[in-house]
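Please check this protein record:
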Amino acid sequence: MLEEKSPDRLSVVLSSFWEELFPKVQDSYAIPKIIERVKAWSADQPTVTEILCNYVCRYASQIDEADAAGIVDRIVFRDILKDWRNSMAASHLNKIEMALRDYEKRDVLLLLYMQILQRGSVSAEKNPEQEVLLSSGLVTEDGGKLKITNRLYAKVFDLAWVEKQLPGITRPVTIVKSQPTGDRKLSFASALYPKIAVAACFLAVAGAALTAHLRAANTQAALATQDEIAISEPVDSAPAASPSSASPLIVSDEAAERSLFDKGVEHATNGRWLPMAREFCRLPKSSTYYMPAQKQIEKWVELYHDDIEIARDTFTQEQDRSCGIMTDGLIQSIQ
């Protein structure tokens, strides 16, 4: 069941997405924003990325930069989370669900998963329950910690879902005050809701079992998976690489990448092809602005092929290195 985050497959998915989306979206600045938001939900999980991209293509004509992230969020909530069993994600999510429900010690497994869900992570250990969660793809190991693979999974398989699998497990247990000896047993039996009593006993047993093979989890902010988020809620992104660790010729900061893209477009608009090359050639291939820049080059090459080729060759001599984005743009234009 486990689906690795294959860079090759992800690259194919995103490349196909660009090809289909680019002619439909009038605002080219919107496309990087769309990709950023899709990744915020999928965390580069290929199948989820592909599903979201397919949905986005349906609404391509309605997308502009200002509302790009909001449209992706609305797609996720309306077309997937509202009724995921009847969405394009149903087959993929059903496989994950069945992997958990079919496990022999399902209760122990779900208690472990609930810990990850509430705490954000638990220490990675070599035990059967963790292996099942990893093989299902629902969680992933990162820095010695088990975390939920992506935000979409956390929203689908939330505390409400866990409660459906183990009724009463997420409810607090009522503490009964001591009473006279003669009435104590009767009062205790009638005061507790049966399901909660079963859950309390089960928690004690399962907790002892888990203690034997789980280290104390690192305290973190709990995942807010049980709370509905606003459509416009910002999604946390990974911290940008520090300037000291980045190559002086390749920029890997989102704001800086956007600046390179903007300046490159401005230079090209005014026929300054070498300055354009200096800006675009500093974009890393992993940047969400790389593909838009390449597509712009392909458009310009149709009218200014020789000028752009000269700019590419001049940049190569000037910097003593090649420029992949310029070369790719020139090659695509003649295919």
